[in-house]
Amino acid sequence: MTGPGRRSSTFTRLLRHGFTDASAAERLLDGAELSPVRDDPVLLEALGRTADPDLALRGLVRLLEAQPGAAARRELIDTVIAAKPLRDRLLGVLGASAALADHLARHPRDWEALVTYEPSDLHPGVEEFERGLAGADDPVSLRIAYRRCLLSIAARDVCGTTDLAETAAELADLATATLRAALGLARAAAPDDAALCRLAVIAMGKCGGHELNYVSDVDVIFVGEALDGADEGKALRAATKLASHMMRICSETTVEGSIWPVDANLRPEGRNGPLVRTLSSHLAYYRRWAKTWEFQALLKARPVAGDLALGAEYVATVEPLVWQAAERENFVADVQKMRRRVVENIPVAEVERELKLGPGGLRDVEFAVQLLQLVHGRADASLRSGTTLDALRALAAGGYVGRTDAVQLDDAYRFLRSMEHRIQLHQLRRTHLVPEAEGDQRRLGRSLGLRTDPVAELNREWKRHAAVVRRLHEKLFYRPLLDAVAQLPSGEARLSTAAARERLVALGYADPAAALRHLEALASGVTRKAAIQRTLLPVLLGWFADSADPDAGLLNFRKVSDALGKTPWYLRLLRDEGAAAENLARVLSAGRLAPDLLMRAPEAVALLGDGDGGGLAPRGRAHLEQEILAAVGRADGAVQGVTAARGVRRRELFRTAAADIVASYGTEAQPVEADRGALVDLVGGAVSDLTAATLAGTLRAVVREGWGDTLPTRFAIIGMGRFGGHELGYGSDADVLFVHEPREGADEQEAGRAANTVVAEMRRLLQVPSADPPLLVDADLRPEGKSGPLVRTLNSYAAYYRRWSLGWESQALLRAEPVAGDEELGRRFVELIDPLRYPPAGLGDDAVREIRRLKARMESERMPRGADPKLHTKLGPGGLSDVEWTVQLLQLRYGAREPGLRTTRTRAALTAARDCGLLSEEDAATLDEAWVLATRVRNAVMLVRGRAGDTFPSDPRELAAVGRYLGYGPGHVGDMLDDYRRTGRLARQVVDALFYGA
To answer: Which residues, in sequence order, are CB contacts of 56 under 8 Å at separation 6+?
Structure first.
């Protein structure tokens, strides 16, 4: 009987050695099996070094109890005490794995597998494992032999004889040997099937990558071919039977459990596709139908069993396709989308405990590495490893990943994989969840060498490594600029000072020295801002170089970065939102207008992103007017109100210009807009709506300040010219007429003074010098022109048009449309002018001759001196004037009888004229093409030069920028001018026939 003192001493020793249930441990040590060695310090110290001394002791007692007799028990206990290698291995396994302890209890002599300590035993490969499985002749004996081999792997692992990578490789080699053994059993069971076919087993996933877990699905693909003389259909059916049987041998549960599931769902068409395909069938599928993720999976393809020559042929056949995957459309976006989908499918309750799939988990590292491999491995064969850590090492060696980043990722991955291994090893169950019970966490922490406070240290280290992975994963993987890197020639994905200088010269920067200064200012230093810039700049330089003026693009980028560099969202936007960086690069290098608009309020760069508050789609008239009127309502006075309205106008002009540039240049995310007419309509509609909303807000601001809510006269603004036709360009003035009508009981003179005051104040406030571009309001199309009053009453307009109206005024009224102010008054104005612009009897011959005479005189008198008439977009042959006057003549002559012609829009009227047979399909297309081209040239000139112009620029770089906007690459400016002349010449032929009657 043990005395109280001795019991207390043993109890204390057990606690000191890491036992948590010292009383139970004492009872086990006092049992018959261990009583001879209960006080042996060697045994207690060895138990204390295990992950779970209590578990190790219970396992040892069970193993001793399972021995066939006293002699066997004595042999085991003597060997444990005398042989340190066996003692450490056996107790280490018993303290880490209850499942392997169960195996040893069922097969008590398997402990002898841990006795051998030869050099070949330290790092066994497939050949050694095949010898270990050689005696298995059925699924049950195969499981027993598999566990025996697994026992030796686990022993080396928990004792630190092998590191994580070596353990994972051994597990993959054991899986290879097991698949071969299982296939051998299947072939032996069906020799007739085996005689018909060649069958190769291709390992995928972690098995293929030589980095398997303790318990994991073993992913495979099967390739079958007929043996000489065999029918292919019969051969494939035979191969399918063999493959299915092999899978069942490994996967089915027996009295000895299962080995692991064999999963063939990575095959072409997944579970819906045939289990076995021929090599040619695989190749046809991958060439035509395969998705991006399938090529990512093929990174790890490795022949492991069956016909290894056929397997090697399969890998050699598909490998070139794998390294072309990064050139596929939307490649990086597809991979990222798949990764996000994985995270989204994790149950919410498990996300924080998910080692593999959760944020900062193992899959983050694996996906990032695989993405970088596919992007850069096209040209660098050193990156083509299926093993994650080997690939990461190669990426660092090649400079594709920073060395510090690679070391941190390597450390984190090893720690997280080690956690995963030890979690699975305990019960040999497939799980990636960190256990919640404190005892389980204690065992897990101790198994990783955390002995002072295992639970706290485990959670601290786990969270630290997960945070490292999450941070680096977001940097390497979610950085959408990899979309662009995937399209860059090899070697352009890194930026150093020397490389930058060479690349600037190669890319055609006109002033490489200045450009390099900008780069140094942006990217030098150790700040996070500089680090992000170093990530962005290699790709941005390529985008700038795709423009006609890369120097301007880089300079503008520096200006924007200097203005916004301290804001927390700017660089993050460029790094994380796929479209933002490329959109910004296009906008900054396309000319002066958009950058000038942006520089006045750099925060508008947010519009270039994908977020909810961004987007480049122009906003509609109602939305704009609502925003502007709300801002005016909050303003303190007319000046502040109009300032707010002009600020919205500047922002929306930038949005429209950016949308136009991006659609004209095209980006990775958005191809070039093929319908150039749609772009013209987009710009014309957006700028016209914006101008109308700005006038509405200005009118409201002026009226509120001077008269409160109600002006003593109804007041309407009528859009004229391009404004009324929804065809304004970036630099267009707002052509308008002002009409008013005194309210009932109001003094007419007072009403007239009020209306004139409103007009004067509106024009003044819209042109006050400020950071926002002015809006010039032009009323020269009013009755009597500049000599007439700015504002007239509706009755005055009626009297004038009834008595004095000239032909050109009726023509000008074809574009009249109410744009702001009193809607009812605007409607009545339209009713007043409709008979003038759509005369019921059409036009007489005299009126037609007068219009033709005016057109001819305008062409001769207004053409600027020295201008090339053939390249003048307004007055030249086939220019805007030619097309518009031709269309307007048709409207004046036939508008009364053809409702479709009653529109203020040139293209709509042209379409209506075609539809009602007034001109042929071919003529209509010719005129439309000329008008769209001339309008786009005017828009391009404004975008490039920052000021309006009706001719092509003379400066070579500006001319090239106009060409780039119009879709002409470098060196094709001459083609652009030739095409413009040809288009104009063809249109002029139509104009001569339709307008002049030639």
So the answer is: 47, 50, 91, 92, 94, 95
